[in-house]
């Protein structure tokens, strides 16, 4: 199949591809060209209610399948993704903008999550607990939580769906998913893939349209037993509040403000390599992208110089073009926001070392940017940049670096470079983050738990921990023995 075969302009409800009730649609644009590439349904409350009902009906039978059956289906889903990796990657680049190599990587990661959960599906064990009563036995089993509602973001429109749909399908949950409005096709493609893999109707339902109407029904409908969301902290907080009325389980992957510390004793070239990967992946639009670089005084100037030189070399352009490593930003708002971080920093005494403005290509392209002499008064010290701007702060001592790194309400990912073993342990234990990269700038993998502390979220995705979020623990007491 080619990418156009996956570009569905309909929603999947109970196994039928349908339009919105009123026939309304939303345009989808290619961020590299500004061109409208198609439309998707503008669905709302009623469509969501029907999708939830379809998921509830499918749950009756799907939750009773054996772990082995579910593992087999997931292996078929994995094969469907890998057989179409290139087509899915092209579709992703066309609607999202990231370079094709990154899209290939993301689709590969989606497949890896599915394969991982096909394996985990068969390892959902319970317990037999020693009983305090002679004539009773105590069993603990784990059961699918029920209908899951999933809301995914535009920065990883394929792999964030994988992290949510994968464990749902592994445990016997059924789901209703809403992809981000900017990148709906990579989400709708999961419907095509699930059909190819042979999933029964209603096991996976996918809706596009009004975020507040769909999200409102997802959070208030009592049939939905779990909400899983990846996106901004303000929307996450709102969804938690909305879900409170029906006491749903929630998994939240929210914003970050990742610090990246480089100590005097670091391997500087490795640190720069890690910094480039961590900062500019997806044009800086990931929640684990380094947001604040802290370089120790002894290597500060050298680090800034090397980082700027490497940043200036990055080839910017349309994601489908050969050799491009940085695509456009998702929309014009994102470009304006990135430019405002630069303006704010320069007004407060920041020193522009490279980049700093919209790229000569025009449109939504922005130059990879390095700003030295960053201070805590500048906006990017507190806010997530979500664009290709690397501010470099200076620090003197380890204590100061850790204090600055922790001085945020976020706690998703952090990174640091050192060759001192004792420091590596000390700093890693003192950083209040869910994920720590020591001498590594990109650390996400399906086998490790992804997630944050503080206002960066609740719960973990991927790994053996991720599946627990989709399972309820049931205690069974067998008496009268
Ligand atoms: P970003 O700033 O990265 O776009 P958002 O949190 O706005 O992050 O978006 C993440 C996801 O949440 C998207 O699928 C978006 O459509 C959805 N979303 C936005 N507003 C709401 C809302 N009021 N209710 C439910 N989902 C929403």
Blueprint of the fold:
Blueprint: H1 3-6, E1 11-13, E2 16-18, E3 25-29, E4 36-41, H2 45-62, H3 67-83, H4 85-96, H5 100-120, E5 127-129, E6 137-144, E7 147-151, H6 159-171, E8 174-178, H7 184-197, E9 204-206, H8 211-220, E10 224-230, H9 233-244, E11 249-253, E12 258-262, H10 268-280, E13 290-296, H11 300-312, H12 332-347, E14 351-354, E15 369-374, E16 389-395, H13 398-406, E17 413-417, H14 421-430, E18 435-438, E19 457-458, H15 463-466, E20 471-478
Parallel strand pairs: 7-8, 7-10, 8-9, 10-11, 12-13, 12-17, 13-16, 15-16, 17-18
Antiparallel strand pairs: 1-2, 3-4, 5-6, 6-20, 11-19, 14-15
The chain binds adenosine-5'-diphosphate.
Q: How would you portray this structure in words?
A:
InterPro entries: Ald_DH/histidinol_DH (IPR016161), Ald_DH_C (IPR016163), Ald_DH_CS_CYS (IPR016160), Ald_DH_CS_GLU (IPR029510), Ald_DH_N (IPR016162), Aldehyde_DH_dom (IPR015590), Aldehyde_DH_Superfamily (IPR050740), Succ_semiAld_DH (IPR010102). Belongs to the aldehyde dehydrogenase family. This is Succinate-semialdehyde dehydrogenase / glutarate-semialdehyde dehydrogenase. Pfam families: Aldedh (PF00171). This protein is of the alpha/beta class. About 40% of the residues lie in helices and about 20% in strands. The strands form 5 sheets. Strands 14-15-16-13-12-17-18 form a 7-stranded mixed beta sheet, sandwiched between helices. Strands 9-8-7-10-11-19 form a 6-stranded mixed beta sheet, with helices on both faces. A 3-stranded antiparallel beta sheet has the order 5-6-20, with no helix packed on it. α3 packs antiparallel against α5. The model has no long low-confidence stretch (mean pLDDT about 100). Adenosine-5'-diphosphate (ADP) binds next to α8. The site of adenosine-5'-diphosphate has 13 residues, from α8.
């Amino acid at each position: 199949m080619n990418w156009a075969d996956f570009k569905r302009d309909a929603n999947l409800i109970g196994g039928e591809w349908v339009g919105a009730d009123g026939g309304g649609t939303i345009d989808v644009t290619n961020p590299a060209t500004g061109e409208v590439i198609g439309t998707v349904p503008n669905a709302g409350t009623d469509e969501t209610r029907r999708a939830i009902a379809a998921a509830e009906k499918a749950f009756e039978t799907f939750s009773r399948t054996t772990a082995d059956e579910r593992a087999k289906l997931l292996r078929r889903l994995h094969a469907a993704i890998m057989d179409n990796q290139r087509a899915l990657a092209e579709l992703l680049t066309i609607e999202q903008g990231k370079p094709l190599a990154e899209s290939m990587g993301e689709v590969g990661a989606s497949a890896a999550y599915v394969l991982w959960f096909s394996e985990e599906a068969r390892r959902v064990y319970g317990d037999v607990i020693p009983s305090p009563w002679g004539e009773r036995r105590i069993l603990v089993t784990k059961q699918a939580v029920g209908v899951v509602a999933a809301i995914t973001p535009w920065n990883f429109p394929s792999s964030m769906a994988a992290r949510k749909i994968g464990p749902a399908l592994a445990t016997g949950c059924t789901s209703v998913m809403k992809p981000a409005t900017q990148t709906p096709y990579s989400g709708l493609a999961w419907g095509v893939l699930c059909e190819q893999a042979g999933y029964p109707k209603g096991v996976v339902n996918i809706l596009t349209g009004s975020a507040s109407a769909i999200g409102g029904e997802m959070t208030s409908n009592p049939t939905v037993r779990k909400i899983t969301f990846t996106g901004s902290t303000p929307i996450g907080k709102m969804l938690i509040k909305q879900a409170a009325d029906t006491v749903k389980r929630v998994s939240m992957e929210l914003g970050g403000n990742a610090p990246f510390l480089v100590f005097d004793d670091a391997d500087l070239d490795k640190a720069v390599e890690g910094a480039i990967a961590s900062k500019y992946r997806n044009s800086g639009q990931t929640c684990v992208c380094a947001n604040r670089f802290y370089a120790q005084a002894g290597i500060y100037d050298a680090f800034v110089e090397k980082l700027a030189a490497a940043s200036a070399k990055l080839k910017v352009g349309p994601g489908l073009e050969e050799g491009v490593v940085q695509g456009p930003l998702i929309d014009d708002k994102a470009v304006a926001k990135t430019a405002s971080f630069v303006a704010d920093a320069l007004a407060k005494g920041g020193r522009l070392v490279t980049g700093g403005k919209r790229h000569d290509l025009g449109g939504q392209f922005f130059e990879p940017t390095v700003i030295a002499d960053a201070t805590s008064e500048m906006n990017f010290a507190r806010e997530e940049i979500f664009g290709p701007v690397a501010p470099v702060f200076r620090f003197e001592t380890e204590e100061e670096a850790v204090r600055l790194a922790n001085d945020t309400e976020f706690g998703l990912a952090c990174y640091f470079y050192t060759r001192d073993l004792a420091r590596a342990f000390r700093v890693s234990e003192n950083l209040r983050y869910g994920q720590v990269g020591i001498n590594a700038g990109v650390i996400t993998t399906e086998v490790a738990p992804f997630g944050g502390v503080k206002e960066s979220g609740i719960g973990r995705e991927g790994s053996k921990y991720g599946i627990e979020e989709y399972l309820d623990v049931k205690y069974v007491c067998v008496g009268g023995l």
